[in-house]
Specification:
Jelly Rolls; alpha+beta; 326 residues; 25% strand; eight-stranded antiparallel beta sheet
């Protein structure tokens, strides 16, 4: 592990054909967000009694169709989201929003394409407040200048515990439904590790293994900066999914600086996806491997992510990783 805490890993994709059922979300019959959206399978358990009671008031999200973001956003949804934030507080509003997402559609997108985009996860005001935290050193445990480690150009800072309330709310509320997807992925890939339904239980596992440093981070890029393709691996215990939220407005705050995801397929050339993110949009993507259905069963492909060169302006991004660092 480098001082910058990024692991660029083995560039070779690993093929492990397995006889397994086709990619599919978890069994039907669960409750929570899936029940609210009419979708079987992945349920997002409310992260608190307040979230459970307010779920019906949250803005519902629906699939846009093939090739589109799995969660649609419109003016009415945005208004309801903002009203919920003001009514119950930003952190509680985040939990309500996450619980109301269409997790069936999100699981389908992750299975099919290796990523899922959720528009408008944060409001414009929340994005501005989050980006402004970069200038508050007391919030962070360490700062990494990418050029010093060959990671690219730009910099980022890791938050210290206790995390700011909104970041903690995102991490806690997203973990539960993502853990269900992660467990299904590990089953398909023949991995032994399974993830408990509560994030604190998973963190206890990390901390017992010496992984005690928080990993949520803020990244800052200015003109000419970029982030090399990499994987965020920090120790023995790795949660297979992570998220990023763009905090700046493309075309206004910056130009260029696209989020890039690559899939290294066995015996084939790598496939590249460029994420069309707007301010406040969240993308869910793999940390390391994901399962793919092939002609001879399930195999795994290696994923990496990065940011293309910024042509102008300044760009901030929030990154949330669910395992802690050694």
């Amino acid at each position: 592990m480098s001082n910058g805490e990024l692991d660029f890993g083995d560039p070779q994709a690993e093929r492990k054909p397995r006889k397994a059922p086709p990619l599919a979300p978890a069994p039907a019959g669960t409750t929570g967000a899936a029940a609210r959206t009419g979708a079987p399978g992945w349920a997002a358990a409310p992260s608190s009694p307040a979230a459970a009671g307010a779920g019906s008031a949250a803005a519902s999200r629906t699939a846009n169709g093939a090739g589109a973001a799995p969660v649609a956003s419109n003016t009415a949804d945005a208004g309801a989201q903002l009203a919920a934030r003001k009514a119950v507080g930003a952190a509680a509003g985040i939990a309500v929003h996450v619980a109301a997402l269409d997790w069936q559609a999100i699981a389908d997108e992750l299975n099919a394409r290796g990523y899922a985009i959720i528009p408008g996860m944060l409001t414009a005001d929340e994005c501005a407040a989050m980006a402004a935290q970069y200038a508050q050193p007391a919030l962070f445990r360490s700062r990494v200048v990418m050029a010093q480690h060959g990671f690219g150009s730009g910099e980022y800072q890791y938050f210290r515990y206790p995390l700011p309330s909104m970041i903690s709310a995102l991490r806690l509320s997203l973990y539960g439904p993502l853990a269900r997807i992660a467990n299904r992925w590990h089953e398909l890939m023949g991995e032994d590790a399974r993830f408990p339904p509560e994030h604190m239980d998973f963190l206890a596992r990390c901390h017992a293994a010496g992984q005690q440093r928080p990993t949520p981070l803020l990244l800052q890029y200015t003109s000419g900066d970029y982030n090399c393709l990499h994987q965020d691996l920090y120790g023995e215990h790795v949660f297979p999914l992570q998220v990023a939220v763009l905090l700046s407005q493309p075309g206004k705050d910056f130009d260029g600086g696209e989020f890039v995801l690559t899939e290294q397929r066995p015996r084939l050339q790598s496939r590249v996806e460029v994420m069309p993110l707007g301010r406040g949009d969240m993308v869910i993507f793999p940390v390391n491997h994901r399962p793919v259905q092939g002609g001879r069963g399930i195999y795994r492909v290696s994923m990496r992510h990065g940011v293309s060169r910024l042509r102008a302006g300044q760009r901030h991004t929030l990154g949330i990783i669910f395992h802690d660092a050694a």
